[in-house]
Design brief:
single chain; alpha/beta; 13 helices; binds 2-phosphoglycolic acid
């Protein structure tokens, strides 16, 4: 059985002070049920890079993992404005979101660059969360699966066998991100099933069955239960609703039927 992962992507939001307050209220809410929650799920938050030290401190002793929203593929060097895997690891970061649609569409990251980052994260034993998803235009043209599976195969190509089981995938239809229009559980499950199938072709059944595939795009406390109850939806990558302790804590308690 795959464990659920509920991940919060804070994007470019919050100051250090606000981040500490949010983590404190989140902990005072979910730490109470930590043992029960730990039975079948993991929780992760991904703050902006500059807040990672403060959040790392605020998370001391908590069962909430720390993620980054992006990183460079080199360990060090003349890359003004970038952060590397060893820097992130120094603050206890265990996961890194890569290829988020905002990185692809606002910052023009392509599959090749994203793939280099995935390989670098895996080499450093940071769990990469590869985001894939089609735009509204591609969706309307009936090209969702083609786009998603191309991004998936390119993003994960060249992984050493020992790293293949250590990646995660997030299906985030671009038209659902920050729009309040989430994919229906049936729509998402259809794409997640195709992703699983493609992972089987790429890595074999056992590894494909162990990889967690998250759904992202307007996940809220109201729609998370029906999404994570689908057989191939192994959790959620939550943007807007992860910025409020009460809504994120409710999403963390998603009911899986
Ligand atoms: P959203 O963002 O939940 O605000 O739609 C999700 C994401 O971009 O990861």
């Amino acid at each position: 059985m795959r464990r659920i992962l509920i991940a919060g992507n804070w994007k470019m939001n919050l100051t250090a002070l606000e981040a500490r307050v949010l983590v404190a209220s989140l902990r005072s809410d979910i730490d109470r049920d930590a043992a029960a929650l730990a039975r079948d799920r993991d929780v992760l938050i991904a703050p902006p890079a500059v807040l990672i030290p403060a959040v790392s401190q605020a998370l001391a002793g908590a069962s909430i993992a720390l993620g980054a929203q992006n990183m460079h593929f080199e360990d060090q060097g003349a890359f003004t404005g970038e952060v590397s895997a060893p820097m992130l690891k120094g603050f206890g970061v265990t996961h890194v979101i890569l290829g988020h649609s905002e990185r692809r569409h606002v910052f023009h990251e392509n599959d090749d660059l994203i793939n280099r980052k995935i390989l670098a994260a895996a080499r450093h034993r940071l769990t990469p969360i590869l985001c894939v998803g089609e735009t509204q235009h591609e969706h309307d043209a009936g090209r969702a699966l083609e786009v998603v599976l191309t991004q998936l195969q390119a993003g994960l190509s060249g992984l050493y066998p020992q790293h293949r089981g250590e990646v995660m995938v997030a299906y985030e239809p671009v038209w659902a991100i920050g729009t309040g229009r989430n994919a229906t559980p049936e729509q998402a499950e259809h794409v997640h099933g195709a992703i699983r199938e493609s992972l089987r072709d790429q890595f074999g059944q056992e590894i494909a069955d162990s990889i967690r595939i998250l759904y992202g795009g307007s996940v809220t406390a109201d729609n998370v239960d029906s999404l994570v109850s689908k057989p191939n939806i192994d959790g959620a990558l939550v943007g807007g609703a992860s910025l409020k302790a009460d809504s994120f804590a409710r999403i963390v308690r998603a009911r899986v039927d």
